[in-house]
Amino acid sequence: NKQVILKDYVKGFPKESDMLVTTSTIKLKIPDDCHHAILVKNLYFSCDPYMRNQMNKVQGNDPYSLVPGSPIAGHGVARVIDSSHPDIKKGDLVWGFTRWEEYSLIRDPDTLFKIQDTDVPLSYYTGILGMPGMTAYAGFYEVCSPKKGETVYVSAASGAVGQLVGQFAKLMGCYVVGSAGSKDKVELLKNKFGFDDGFNYKEEQDLNAALKRYFPDGIDIYFENVGGKMLDAVLLNMKTHGRIAVCGMISQYNLEQPEGVHNLFTLVTKRIRMEGFTVLDYYHLYQKFVDMVLPLIKEGKINYVEDIAEGLESAPSALVGLFYGRNVGKQVVLVSRE
Ligand code: NDP
């Protein structure tokens, strides 16, 4: 059973050498004392920014943190090859929390979702129809309180979550601008995802001035994916009664000392609501989300871009690439086609 294991806790930016591809043995049958378990063959791994936070050495007990020597844990798509669970049978396809190895014994499969619709590529269940898609949906519709005609700014806009947030905002009739880290990504925002405009934040000397250029009358909604200097500049450009949905702060995950944010007092003067959220609290809406998004995908009303690395061996480099912006769209690893 080929696996990708964490070699040691990570400090600073993750490196490929923090992980190791190795081989262990696994019986391709559920042990007799394992009730309600499933054995899966992993087909796709999802590379997600939160996986970096699992590699930190933490004080106390954190159920999500990894122990060196154990396989990387993350979301994926898998096929069930044996089951002692009453509702899941051999041959079923599932998405959810798995481990970076060819085969995984999953002792608590109740957190997994069964894949019902296979008319779309299975990899979509790591992204637009999986955790990041659900994040975009919950964050935009439940946290941002959007209204037609409002101005929306999305950072890390070409990524798994951002590309969908921008398209939801367009469907609602908002004016949408995104930022991303290369010229090609900005082209995608405008030409593939239908954003009204976009800019390469790496080419802007003054983020405050850049935002003033795109939002001369201010921002109603900021979908926050990066944090740090970007957040500080956004705070200076929010409209009165604006909303900031704090989804993530990827610019901070590899810093030993998080950057300070200086302009928080504008929350008071502009009566801004800034709210953090986690997708974990919104999975009860999953079916509603799929019922909305699946037809939009099939009718071509939502576009989706993914970046697929081939082979389990490519997984460490694909994951590290997120923190250098090497991924164009949702980063996925193809482990096995069947
Ligand atoms: P992406 O697919 O967008 O990949 C990460 C991207 O972040 C990179 O491609 C890069 O794009 C950008 N990035 C990396 N480093 C920096 C930096 N220092 N400054 C600015 N941008 C940077 O990831 P996701 O869409 O999966 O995740 C987006 C955000 O959503 C993350 O913050 C993540 O933690 C968060 N998240 C939160 C969830 C929740 O429940 N709250 C659930 C899922 C995700 P570029 O080239 O544009 O710089």
UniProtKB/TrEMBL annotation:
<dbReference type="InterPro" id="IPR041694">
    <property type="entry name" value="ADH_N_2"/>
</dbReference>
<dbReference type="InterPro" id="IPR045010">
    <property type="entry name" value="MDR_fam"/>
</dbReference>
<dbReference type="InterPro" id="IPR011032">
    <property type="entry name" value="GroES-like_sf"/>
</dbReference>
<keyword id="KW-0560">Oxidoreductase</keyword>
<dbReference type="GO" id="GO:0032440">
    <property type="term" value="F:2-alkenal reductase [NAD(P)H] activity"/>
</dbReference>
<dbReference type="Pfam" id="PF16884">
    <property type="entry name" value="ADH_N_2"/>
</dbReference>
<dbReference type="InterPro" id="IPR036291">
    <property type="entry name" value="NAD(P)-bd_dom_sf"/>
</dbReference>
<dbReference type="InterPro" id="IPR020843">
    <property type="entry name" value="ER"/>
</dbReference>
<dbReference type="Pfam" id="PF00107">
    <property type="entry name" value="ADH_zinc_N"/>
</dbReference>
<dbReference type="InterPro" id="IPR013149">
    <property type="entry name" value="ADH-like_C"/>
</dbReference>
<feature type="domain" description="Enoyl reductase (ER)">
    <location>
        <begin position="22"/>
        <end position="333"/>
    </location>
</feature>
<protein>
    <submittedName>
        <fullName>2-alkenal reductase (NADP(+)-dependent)</fullName>
    </submittedName>
</protein>
